[in-house]
Amino acid sequence: MAFAGTGKIWMNGKMVDWSDAKIHVASHVIHYGSGVFEGARCYDTKKGPAVLRLDSHVARLLASAKIYRMDAPYTQAQLETAILDTIRVNNFKACYIRPLMYRGYNALGVNPLPCPVDVAIMVWEWGAYLGADALDKGVDVCISSWNRAAPNTFPAMSKTSGNYANAALIRMEAESNGYSEGIALDTFGYVSEGSGENVFVVRNGEIYTPPLSASILPGITREMIIQVAGDLGYRMREENVPREMLYIADELFFAGTAVEITPVRSVDKITVGNGRRGPITEAIQRRFLSVINGDSPDTHGWLTYLDQTGSRPEPVAAGTKAR
Ligand SMILES: Cc1ncc(COP(=O)(O)O)c(C=O)c1O
């Protein structure tokens, strides 16, 4: 995907033309990966454009920053507003959203603390991450020869730019061997996650997903799937998943903002189930899509509408009464 290179990017409180949204090569983040970021999506629902889990994405951004001792220069509410403003100014109904908080230009020692904390928000159109057919037909994946970072090395709960050096190794290896994606194990040999998505396994009618202790990013889609699975009456087990369970799974799927819910049809060339999207994956996918399309009620309060008429009240001007 090449960027169209148009529109506006929010940088430290100002809307800047895409072509002018530049940082200095001496910025700390370029040298040491000292940024934290988010990936969220805005959907064109039947009730108008809405951002999925806006509050949770901003909260995770701030948590990622806190782990790295970054004092966020904007509050949760300011960042939520800035994200909505950036989508509006770019006239998108549906888009991918990338807020980024990074250590900027001041000094180039390893210690990031002398460097300012800068913030940018980009939005762009981004379709199916693993290809147009993936959501329906599924993808072929491998177990990566790269592990996820060990506990107490690179904090997995922080969505940090530097962590994606590991993700890139997983992804490059998978693609160069002809797979769509790689699943990494943690350093104990249990299943962790894909390079940019969490993993769910269905076996004998129950759904398994690795726990936070398996070096995973606490995915917001993962959290929604746990809720949807509960709503649909499935038993969800957050526990260590041995590698071989992927080979004998009835169904397997990825979950993440970019991939949404994508079935996996083979692992290391071993067919998962009957090699097609399974019934439980489909049921969860359908329920998830019907909420984000606005076909089912948003009972969990996941959507923030751009026109603010959906899950949030319109702002009331001073001196007027709320309707
Ligand atoms: C490493 C990794 N795991 C899991 C996920 C899924 O997280 P979410 O559902 O919040 O997008 C992502 C995507 O951000 C990711 O990069």
Give a description of the structure.
- The protein contains 8 helices and 17 strands.
- The longest helix is centred in the first third of the chain and has 14 residues, at 54-67.
- Helices cover 25% and strands 27% of the residues.
- It is of the alpha+beta class and 323 residues long.
- The protein has helices spanning 28-32, 54-67, 76-89, 134-137, 164-176, 220-231, 243-247, 279-292, and strands at residues 8-11, 14-17, 35-37, 40-45, 48-52, 95-103, 117-124, 139-143, 181-185, 191-194, 198-203, 206-209, 235-238, 251-256, 260-267, 270-271, 303-305.
- A hairpin with a 2-residue loop joins strand 15 (260-267) and strand 16 (270-271).
- Pyridoxal-5'-phosphate binds next to helix 6.
